[in-house]
Amino acid sequence: MHSRIFEQIMSTENKFKVIVLGERNVGKSTIITRFMYDNFDHVYKATVGIDFLIKAVSLDNSSVRLQIWDTAGQERFRSLIPSYVRDSSAAIVVYDVNNRRSFQQISMWINELRTQLSMDVVIMLVGNKTDLTNEREVETAEGQDKANELNVMFMETSAKNSNDIKGLFQRMAMALNFKANSMPR
Ligand code: GDP
Ligand code: MG
């Protein structure tokens, strides 16, 4: 009985809302669907208008549930709807490494996020579409420099090839778990 209650408490504590932001067409919905349906070979059409999806990520001696929110198209307006941002623990901010304009908007998204939420929200900057090697406009080092400047984590991914998509959410889960465990109760 006790252990059951304990489990329930643990399960609510280990759930985090993660929002995915960035310009249109950078691959946000594809990253989410890749992560959710990793076992399938066929390419999923990115869902339009979904609210959120929940998936558990296993860590060494615990499990973290990520509640992942797609933008449902609000990136068109270049501003975040407060109800979407509310209660988020973390954000994944995505640009397309083949599209410099999408990279130039990164500071704008991160500043807006920190203004609306708090300065200590966990943020991962992601350069996506690394599979299009001939078209690259933003080098890895530039992405890393930007991440250092803004004090956020950094990764490059290919949602098309599923490259580092699992690692992305694994790192996010670890960071959130670490932060939750180091917070004073
Ligand atoms: P969103 O607007 O940010 O949600 O972008 P989508 O997930 O809808 O993706 C926009 C387009 O980019 C779609 O045609 C995707 O198939 C494509 N795409 C997404 N990720 C990748 C990737 O890693 N590599 C390549 N080559 N295309 C991608
Ligand atoms: Mg989308």
TrEMBL record:
SUPFAM superfamilies in alphabetical order: P-loop containing nucleoside triphosphate hydrolases (SSF52540)
Keyword Nucleotide-binding on entry: yes
Nucleotide-binding as UniProt keyword: yes
Tree of life domain: Eukaryota
Annotated keywords: GTP-binding, Nucleotide-binding
Matches recorded under InterPro entries: P-loop_NTPase, Rab, Small_GTP-bd, Small_GTPase
PROSITE patterns in the record: ARF, RAB, RAS, RHO
CDD domains: Rab6
Name assigned to this protein: Ras-related protein Rab-6A-like
Gene encoding the protein: LOC101894023
